[in-house]
What we know:
The protein is an alpha+beta fold. It has 1 helix and 3 strands.
Amino acid sequence: MIESTGTWRKSSYSGTESDCVELAWADTSLLVRDSKHPEGPTLELPTPTLIAFAQRTR
Length: 58
C-alpha cells in the first residue's frame, strides 16, 4: 500500500457521507482512494501527470 505523507481529505460537499473519493499528497504524487474501503487499492497520480491532465481539461 502506498503511504501518504499528509492527511487524507475529502470534499466538503460530501458532508457526513462515506461514499466519496479521498485524496492525499505523497512525496511527488497525488493519491486517490475510496473512502468506503480505505485499506483497498490506491491510485497514484504522479505530479507531471496531474499537471498534464489539468492543462488539457481547462
